[in-house]
Amino acid sequence: MSAMASTDERLQALEIKAAYAEDLLDELNLALYRQQQLVERLQQELGELRRRVPDGDAGPRNLRDELPPHY
Fold this sequence. Notes:
The chain is an all-alpha fold.
């Protein structure tokens, strides 16, 4: 009877671990899905910004051209 109880306890412990692992996997999948959505949205925003500023690679800027108006 002791061997049967030990086996049942071990089986129950494995089932609990499997349930926790499944929950963790679901949480990780959801986090990955949300990150992918964020990456796609940021790519769209970057594309829109690139369309708005077509000469984004104009080269180095002169800081004197960016002086505030009170100078």
